Amino acid sequence: MGGRGARKGALTVVRSSGIRAEIRQSKPFRSPAEELVAALLRTTDLLRRLLAERVEAQGITVQQYNVLRILRGAGREGIPTLDIGERMIERAPGITRLIDRLERKGLARRERRADDRRQVLCHITPAGRKLLDRLERPVADAEEDFAKSLGKKGVAELNRLLETLRRGRA
């Protein structure tokens, strides 16, 4: 984070934040928590756009990419539609519509269980697997590029801090 600081012993007190400058906000944040939320949302948006550049070039959205990864991870057994929603990185209310779109593109398929006709299992198709294979390197490169300024220790520490935040909301 940028900003001017005043030295106080070994501690630097930051008077202005980088996020305020980025979003051209003239007033200070109400609290450090408000600043944190703004910074997290801004960072998430930057990452989402970076990933969208990679996956949308292949004709799918980031959410559809997430669903395909979940389907691939489910293996040959497939996965119920409701379970997909629980595994999504970003919760999406329209899982059925996401699967509909993937099915129309030939990337996923659904089947009713013979022993319980109420349950629908979703599967990735061979075309869906091929698409994920094509996206693996571009997405991995985007992730590495996004995180490189933190270094390995910084990435590990940020992951730990974010996990602490998520656990506090569970």
Q: How do the strands and helices of this protein lay out in sequence?
A:
Layout: E1 5-8, E2 11-14, H1 18-22, H2 32-56, H3 62-74, E3 79-80, H4 81-87, H5 95-104, E4 108-112, E5 120-124, H6 126-147, H7 151-169
Antiparallel strand pairs: 1-2, 3-5, 4-5
Structure summary:
With 170 residues, this protein is mostly helical. 59% of the residues lie in helices and 12% in strands.
Your description of this structure?
The structure is a single chain. With 170 residues, this protein is mostly helical. The protein has a single domain (29-169), classed as Arc Repressor Mutant, subunit A. Helices cover 59% and strands 12% of the residues. It has 7 helices and 5 strands, in the order E-E-H-H-H-E-H-H-E-E-H-H. It has helices at residues 18-22, 32-56, 62-74, 81-87, 95-104, 126-147, 151-169; strands at residues 5-8, 11-14, 79-80, 108-112, 120-124. It has a 3-stranded antiparallel β-sheet with strand order 3-5-4. The longest helix is centred in the first third of the chain and has 25 residues, at 32-56. It starts with a strand and ends with a helix. Residues 1-16 have low confidence and may be disordered.
